[in-house]
Design goal:
By secondary structure, the protein is an alpha+beta fold. Helix content is 29%, strand content 28%. Helix 1 crosses helix 2. It is globular, with a radius of gyration of 17 Å. The relative contact order is 0.14.
Length: 137
């Protein structure tokens, strides 16, 4: 395997404070469950949605050779864990592509989901679903 890129993120504050990328950006974070979460801070749900939507749409764009517009919309919900203590994410991911039928979009989604590194990381999670939808522009 050839290493293509490496990064490192550090969080020393937990759910409130900052998380940072070594030699890179620093992000204010706040738990959405806090009594008064900072509305300008990010949380793990938002960061997961941003990471996966970026990765999956970049993969879809590579597959369509940038010849049509595509969009990825991701909804992340935080639920009480179905088994044991704690919480779990429930994630619904939607891909759309300009000029494709719903069946063609579903085929594109299947191909992109099979190639996207974040999709590979989440594959098999019982609380993750992917859906094709019509392009809204």
């Amino acid at each position: 395997m050839t290493l293509r890129y490496r990064t490192e993120a550090i969080n020393g504050d937990g759910g409130t404070g900052t998380a940072r990328v070594t030699d890179g950006m620093e992000v204010s974070v706040a738990s959405p469950l806090a009594q008064n979460p900072d509305p300008d801070a990010s949380n793990p749900e938002q960061l997961l949605a941003l990471a996966w939507s970026t990765c999956l749409n970049a993969t879809a764009q590579a597959l369509v050779k940038r010849e049509r517009r595509t969009a990825v919309r991701i909804e992340v919900e935080l639920h009480d864990a179905s088994e044991g203590p704690g919480y779990e994410f429930h994630v619904d991911t939607y891909l759309s592509a300009e000029g494709l039928t719903l069946d063609e979009t579903a085929d594109l989604l299947a191909s992109a989901h099979a190639r996207c590194p974040v999709s590979k990381l989440l594959r098999g999670a019982t609380t993750v679903q992917v859906h094709a939808e019509q392009f809204a522009g």
